[in-house]
Amino acid sequence: MEAWWRGLAVAAVVVLLSWSVLVLLARRLPPGIARDLARFLPDSVTAVRRLRRHPAVPRRAKGALLLAGLWVLSPVDLIPEFLPVIGPLDDVVVVALALRYAGRRVPRDVLLAAWPGERRVLERLLGPAGAPEA
């Protein structure tokens, strides 16, 4: 049983280290797609924290965002986190889908106000303003 706990602790440390690398990369990369991708998960975490208590966010959108957050925290991934660069891609895809879902149900100005990163990244993810609901 002790070996199991040790393995779990090592996995948690690896995940935290990979997130730390993402944050460091986001600060050191030149402007561009790589920097936007590296900043996406930290910016998403901040946005989800801000949106979870906002009264304009419906329960279903909060649920989708919560599930995306649990996916990011889960040690089970489609692509293992310890693989450099591509490890967090499944997390990015899940969070992007949850934000698009929330973007159809939450007023755009609320989402943009909650987003701490560059506005153009979220606007590109959400699509043009006034786009028809799917």
Number of helices: 6
Mean pLDDT: 80
Number of domains: 1
What spatial form do the alpha-carbon principal axes imply?
A: globular
What is the tally of beta strands? 0
Largest sheet: none
Distance between the termini: 48 Å
Low-confidence stretches: none
Order of helices and strands: HHHHHH
> Radius of gyration over alpha carbons?
16 Å
Instruction: Give the strand content.
Output: under 5%
Helix content class: 55-70%
* Structure classification: mainly alpha
Please give a quick description of this structure:
This protein has 134 residues and is mostly helical. It has one domain.
What does this structure look like?
This protein is mostly helical. It contains 6 helices and no strands.
How are the SSEs placed, and which strands pair?
Blueprint: H1 2-28, H2 33-51, H3 59-73, H4 89-105, H5 108-114, H6 119-126
Note the main attributes of this structure.
134 residues; mainly alpha; 6 helices; 69% helix; 0% strand; globular
